[in-house]
Design a protein that fits this description.
Strands 6, 9, 10, 11 and 13 form a five-stranded mixed β-sheet that branches. A four-stranded mixed β-sheet has the order 1-3-2-4. The protein has a two-stranded antiparallel sheet with strand order 5-12. The radius of gyration is 19 Å and the shape is globular. A hairpin with a 2-residue loop joins strand 10 and strand 11. It is α/β, with parallel strands linked by helices. The longest helix is centred in the C-terminal third of the chain and has 18 residues. The relative contact order is 0.18. It has two domains: 155 residues, Periplasmic binding protein-like II (D-Maltodextrin-Binding Protein, domain 2, 3-Layer(aba) Sandwich), CATH 3.40.190; 116 residues, 3-Layer(aba) Sandwich (D-Maltodextrin-Binding Protein, domain 2), CATH 3.40.190.
Amino acid sequence: MIATICGVSGFILPNNVRAESALTFAAGQHTIYEYRKFLKPYDGDVTLVEAIPNGALNRCAMDLVIQIKAMRLGGITAPIEFEPVPNARRGTELMAEGHVIGLAQQLNKDTLIVQGYDKKLYVRDAITRFGEFQKGIYCLPHNLNVLAVTSSKELADAGTAIIGLHWNNDAKVLQDMGVRDIIRTPTYESIIKMIGAGRADWAPLEIPNTKDKAITYDGVTLVPVPQIKLSLLESRHYLVSKNHPRGREVFHALQSGLQKLQAQGFIRKALVSCGVINPDTRDWTILNEAAMLAGEVSQ
């Protein structure tokens, strides 16, 4: 089922975009909700957004704001619709098939290796540069065993880690750090729920740019292990479907708009706002720093 910004949330689009066919993004249901909620004070017009307050959006909703704002700056005026998906893998499949124009998040280039996706997807230059996407180690506030971790070796012995079903890069990074007890689950929300239910002990999650850096979902609160984090050892990019009828046009418009947003400093501030980059953790120990520095040299 496709959810449309126009109508469903009561947003009114300008007359000049009503006659155009809509462009559809794949996104998680909670991301769609957050995006709409954030745009309500702007009457649904993403071009009016000048900044994203710290902690106001999750990473995927932030990526939607950047992409759609960039498309508008690049000259695309079509209304936007959403196709709810359970995870990024399903969204990427729909994008490769041309059923949706884009996805509500950045992906690493390994995505292109799957099933000939390099022939089906346009890839934009890095939005998040190699090594910049760093995550904290999150657990329940009373899990003193995990909260006491200060090294990769201690983390490997700190119980069961849980990651997303298709978080292959997270898995590789953790395995290279010596972590072997890793389970997977289909959605971000289920990661938090399973830790809350005691079925896992900790998860690598982006660190919100809020005072306490806690993550709360459906009554479960997770907190970061103090002073440690890890790098995902990847750059991240926006992708556009080559098989969509307007794929090439949208890709060039996106490129143009993103260049303008980067020049304005909007993208960097947005990445900081949602915790992809968190200046407050600048001095935290990167558990896999040696691998990160080696990777930066080879880029």
